[in-house]
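Reopening this one. Same input as before:
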Amino acid sequence: MSNRIKISLLAVVAVALIAIFMFTNLGTNLSYILPRRGMIILAIVLTGATIAFSTIIFQTITNNRILTPSILGLDSLYLLIQTVIIFSFGSTSLTAADKNINFFLSVGIMVLFAGVFFKLLFRGQGARNIYFLLLVGIILGTFFGSLSTFMQVLIDPNEFMIIQDRMFASFNNVNTDILMVAIVMIVLVIIYFLRFVKYLDVLSLGKEQAVNLGVDYDNVVKRLLVIIAILVSISTALVGPITFLGLLVANVTYEFLKTYKHSQLIWGSILISIIALVGGQLIVDRVFTFSTTLSVIINFVGGVYFIYLLLRGKR
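Same output, byte for byte:
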């Protein structure tokens, strides 16, 4: 079976799941249910597409299939931002309660952090090492997590419950205004990305081969990392952190398509991500009746798959 047919099948499954989610168990109040479910589906498509897209590009840059952009510490930074806001101003403050202000503040700080982070690490010939960047990202992520935990144990338990809600991704209370802003930002980033798409297949060969084939490796990788950071910041600020989703969908895509062509890998991973999120949301909605969250299911399945990948690599 060719990859074109496989991608078409994934598209059919994704559309079928979206149709099931949208048009089953509708009840009588259609004017309320259909727009609400439409917003949830839109949030799922945006989040799934950005996470899958950024993970495929990140794994191509690092030449490692068990790494995800969360290793840069952006998820931990998001939780730190939410904790600092509630710790400093309280959950009833405008900054914490207004989703638009919170979204712009979170995305702005994460993008600023990523820009300064990459600027410092890529300055000078001796510092241009992708693995050094990953090591610093792990250290900063641990530092942000420890700082968040320290403040969380000091605040009021009721305020902590609000922070805890933001520690898990949720598609149930999506703000329409944020979605529209996120769409505009994602489109602008994708337009900027198009000039680098021709380098991806060569970058997957490794740094030495890419340099020998004429790619300005450091320049291209630095700009791709900024694109990844912006997309991860948008998806995290939109619904919350989903740690293992990127790992899960990227590796399933590699196994399913068995190709190095990023024109196919990117589309395949986006469709698999949408299938995983819509299928997971259906399970949360119809099986568990909202007694758990989608991120818990995704992280559980992704964590088990991560252990499987480690054990398979060891053999």
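So the earlier flakiness isn't reproducible anymore. For the record, Residues 25 and 286 are 9 Å apart (CA to CA).
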